[in-house]
Each structure stands twice: as C-alpha cells, then as structure tokens.
Design a protein that fits this description.
By secondary structure, the chain is an alpha/beta fold. It is built from eleven helices and eight strands. Helix 10 packs antiparallel against helix 11.
C-alpha cells in the first residue's frame, strides 16, 4: 500500500480547491497531512480529507514525521498545491514491485496552458533523468524500508530533496516515471516567469558551490 505524505502550513485555499481530488485518492491509499502550525482553517479541512498529525515547522521535519506515522510500504511525498491521478498510484505500486528499485519521482506538469511552461517542465523533466536528482514538487516516492534505512530527509533549512535523492541513488535503482504530477503555476505567476527561473537557478548555483544552507534559506525567504 502507498501512503501519501503532505506537509502543510496555511494551505486552506489549496486544500479546499483540491478537496474532491484528495477524496478520490483516499479511496485506495492512506493520506497523511502534517501540519507545521497553520493559523488558518487548514487543519479543519485536512481532517475531512485524510489523517492529520502535527509537528514542528519545517518541510523535512514534517515529512519525516508523516513518514514515521505512515502504514504503507511505499511513501509518496506530495505538495499541497500538487495533484496526481489514481492511475498514477497504480503505476507507482506496479513499478515498486521490482525490489531492485529504491524509489523515484514523476514528470512535472505545470497547471497552465501557456507554452512557456511546456518548455520549463520539459527541461526540468530531462534534467531529472540525466542527473537522478529530484525536487520535492515532482512527487518523490520511495520504499519505506529504504527511507528508514537512510534516516529520512536530512532536517536542513533548504535543499532537503536534493540531498535526499542524491543519497537515494546509492540505495538502488531510481526511476523517473513518465506520468504527471500536476504542479501549481502560482510561484511563477507570483514572481514572474523569468524572475522565478533565474531565482531558482541562482539558488542551485549557491548550493552546488558550497554556500551554507542557512544562508541559502535566508536568501530564499528574503526574495520570495
């Protein structure tokens, strides 16, 4: 069985908008929402859509808490503003029946008809296949026993997804499954497409050149 782990904080609008889709997913899988201290009505609506636990704020901390509480033998980490279809879960479970595979992610599909987003998501999906490094909004999935052996996500201020998937590659084969996770276009729409692309490229340059994660997090918070 698969457990879907979703960290939330003040995500009422996204949860409300996607409530019907979450209910459809919950028919066949376990959904766990991990709240990091919401001040809106996120807890109230999340409780109607799945299991809710609370933890200290922090994406990695929250995801680790959700993984610990999960009963499934496959973990799939999803953002609150992202969505997958039920048939994607069937394909993930079929893929993970091969014990040689430690985990993987899905192809990103940005929720906008604008052509520029086809280029952005296409480049990102190609990057994932070439590097084996996956980002959190690509619905990372992993065998729970592998996740536990790895010690979960590193509880760092930022880039926990990159650090985790780099380490995951040493646990077995990883796969980018050619099925979509629908991702909200809100960050690009909020900051502007060019500015957003440059912003995340700059953060990656800082990371790969060894800038401390605390400084990268400060830049991330300042510019958003």
């Amino acid at each position: 069985m698969t457990s879907i782990v979703i960290p939330i904080i003040n995500e009422f609008e996204n949860l409300y908008y996607q409530a019907a889709r979450f209910r459809q997913l919950a028919i066949n899988v376990e959904i766990i929402f991990i709240d990091g201290g919401s001040q809106d009505s996120s807890l109230e609506i999340a409780a109607k859509l799945g299991r809710v636990i609370q933890s200290p704020k922090g994406r990695a901390i929250q995801m680790n808490a959700g993984a610990k509480a999960a009963s499934g033998d496959i973990l799939l980490f999803l953002h609150a503003d992202s969505m997958i279809k039920p048939e994607v879960l069937v394909a993930v479970e079929r893929l993970m029946s091969d014990k040689r595979i430690a985990g993987g992610c899905l192809d990103q599909r940005i929720d906008s008809p604008r052509r520029i987003f086809r280029f952005i998501e296409g480049f990102g999906n190609l990057r994932s296949r070439l590097t084996g490094v996956y980002y959190g909004d690509q619905a990372i999935f992993v065998r729970k026993e592998v996740f536990e052996d790895m010690g979960g996500f590193p509880e760092v201020p930022v880039m926990e997804d990159v650090l985790f998937t780099k380490k995951l590659r040493r646990q077995g084969r990883t796969v980018v499954l050619p099925l979509p996770v629908q991702v909200s276009a809100r960050r690009w729409e909020k900051m502007g497409i060019i500015r957003t692309c440059l912003f995340y490229s700059w953060l990656n340059i800082l990371f790969w050149t060894g800038v401390p994660l605390t400084k990268i997090r400060a830049i991330y918070d300042d510019l958003r």
